[in-house]
Amino acid sequence: MIARLVAAAALVGLAGLAPGESNARGGWRLVPETSLSAMLDCLEAEGRTLVSAHRGGPSPGLPENAIATMDAVLTAIPAVMEVDVAQSADGVLFLLHDDRLDRTTTGEGVAAEKPWADLAALRLTDGAGWVTPYGIPTLAEALDWAKGRTVLQLDFKRSAPYEAVIDMVREKGMEDSVILIAYSVPAAKKLHDLAPEAMISLSVESPGALAEAVAAGIPAERIIAFTGTRLARPDLYAALDEADVEVIFGTLGRSPNSIDNVIARFGTDERYAELSQGGVDVIATDRPREAAAALAAAERLPEAGVCGVEQGG
Questions:
Q1: What's the pTM value of the predicted model, to 2 decimals?
Q2: For the chain, give me the number of helices (H) and strands (E)?
Q3: Residue 60 pLDDT > 70, yes or no?
Q4: Three-class SS of residue 224?
Q5: Mean pLDDT along residues 262-284
């Protein structure tokens, strides 16, 4: 077991790979061979669980929602990248989580009220408040970076119109390499009507919630069920599996009692593998490297050469 854990740590870049350092093997790629739905079905059949790096997987010196941060994570592990999309006062789509600039940038005030020229002049700060060399990326830049490399999970901020985001996704040819996040059936239906070929992450807390979405006209094969951040639900996962719907479970959160923080506090990273074994297909986490190491140790992490996952090159 110890040898397997050491090998898993080396695989995911925990054995001496500094944040932002390039992996000599060229990093990982998650590129659907036919469709994202088929890729997810394939990974589920192989008993493999994907990691979704929340806000791109920030770490010291690498701020959230930055391309350099996502690049560092993808160098180390195969991962989906979850990012937040907002829009400037003059219509430029960009990545930022908070409504205000204060916490994550060198700026102040409401981001959506600023023209892009002002936003582009700012620098991103990391979790400790240190100013980094990185600027706020546009959605176009993020899509260009991700194309042929990985899947982006797009969380819409209030300022970002669905239509504008989907137009940009189409312009970049990324329709089958994005997951659109919706928190209600009406929102999911609108997204599906605008982009019927895209996968939608929809909050689903019961089989009845899935049935409601399907009755609204959203095909089950286009839905990935987000099942919350607090309590694992193997019974719900089994019901969703019967409907051929993949499961996302979030271990993320700033609270000291988030699952990520509890796992880190008690040193029980094997819990990530237990979630995989219990039916979770995608783990949305603030600890992507640690989650991937635990999955690799349990032989639950996607491997190169399977289901459109590649490494190196």
A1: 0.91
A2: 12, 11
A3: yes
A4: strand
A5: 98
